[in-house]
Design a protein that fits this description.
By secondary structure, this protein is of the alpha+beta class. The protein is built from 9 helices and 4 strands, in the order H-H-H-H-E-H-H-E-H-E-E-H-H.
């Protein structure tokens, strides 16, 4: 037998033996306990995080816009997709920052739109790249949008700029200089 063939056979034997050993080494758990310890679905995890105040209380588009129209909070509209690398980075970093969470909860109605699931809405808003962040008046009037990733410090500055309505009297650069 050639050396390569022997190596392949040895690797296959090790893989099979490893799989058998791994499956045998797991302790048997009664069915009732196994059901209770099954991992939570992604939606259940997000709902649990929202209850603990560690996730943004995202609204769907139509109910979110209606809610904002009834109140005085500006709208934070976030377009994303599951395959988008920077959307994932926003979700894992910026959107978990405690200052961002608190500021959004207090001052904005946060709406998220999955562009793969709602192509018509994405087209209506002329979303060309992801992520895209829109900022709106409570009545839905467009203020401005930002394409791409923002870290927590950058997003917090933008949120304060929008919330204080400083965009009506000065440029963002002047707002940052006031700092």
């Amino acid at each position: 037998m050639k050396k390569e063939n022997v190596l392949v056979v040895v690797l296959i034997v090790f893989a099979i033996a490893g799989g058998l050993f791994y499956n045998r080494s797991k302790p048997s758990v009664p069915v009732i306990q196994a059901a209770a310890s099954e991992p939570l679905s992604e939606a259940a995890k997000e709902a649990t995080l929202e209850m603990k105040g560690t996730a943004i209380g995202w609204k769907d588009y139509t109910p979110g816009m209606a809610l904002a129209g009834k109140g005085s909070k500006s709208i934070f509209l976030y377009f994303h997709a599951s395959w988008c690398t920077y959307c994932t980075k926003l979700k894992q970093t910026t959107f978990k920052d405690k200052k961002i969470l608190a500021y959004l909860e207090k001052n904005f109605v946060s709406i998220q739109v999955d562009t793969d699931k709602n192509k018509a809405l994405s087209n209506e808003w002329k979303v060309k790249g992801l992520p895209t962040l829109w900022f709106l008046e409570p009545d839905g009037t467009k203020i401005n949008s930002i394409p791409g990733y923002l870290d927590a410090a950058q997003l917090l500055l933008v949120l304060k700029y929008i919330h204080t309505k400083s965009y009506t009297t000065m440029s963002f650069q002047d707002f940052m200089k006031q700092g």
